[in-house]
Design a protein that fits this description.
The chain is an alpha+beta fold. 18% of the residues lie in helices and 24% in strands. A five-stranded antiparallel beta sheet has the order 1-2-3-4-5, with no helix packed on it. The radius of gyration is 20 Å and the shape is extended. The termini are far apart. The relative contact order is 0.17.
């Protein structure tokens, strides 16, 4: 005996299709910057009030540009991790209007994947 094939498409409910509220607006940048300790990171605020955080070894960088990073189209946050001789690094950018909660979650994930050697 064979079974009937599943019908094409997907099944959902009216409840699943209802509109949602989404967090919008830049939020509170201290949610991001408060994740860094002076023991492991350097923090500099420049003359434009941009905030730069780097690890003591120089391989991690976070920049917060409240008015947008110069030379970019609205980049508000920049995360960069320098690679090694064998493995390339990476960069992540967020718009000035990206909620700080979202950036904080990304930073937390990056920090969780780091380890002392």
């Amino acid at each position: 005996m064979t079974s009937a094939p599943a019908s094409p498409g997907f099944a959902t409910t009216i409840e699943a299709l209802r509109l949602r509220e989404w967090q919008l607006g830049p939020g509170q940048p201290t949610l991001v910057t408060d994740q860094f300790s002076a023991d492991d990171f350097n923090l500099v605020v420049d003359d434009r009030a941009d905030v730069h955080v780097s690890s003591k070894d120089g391989r991690f960088y976070l920049g917060w540009f409240p008015l947008g990073r110069p030379g970019t189209d609205g980049e508000g946050w920049k995360i960069a991790v320098t690679g090694t001789a064998r493995v390339p690094g990476y960069q992540i950018s967020f718009d000035v209007e990206t909620p700080a909660d979202i950036v904080a979650a990304a930073v937390a994930c990056v920090l969780e994947t780091s380890r002392r050697v």
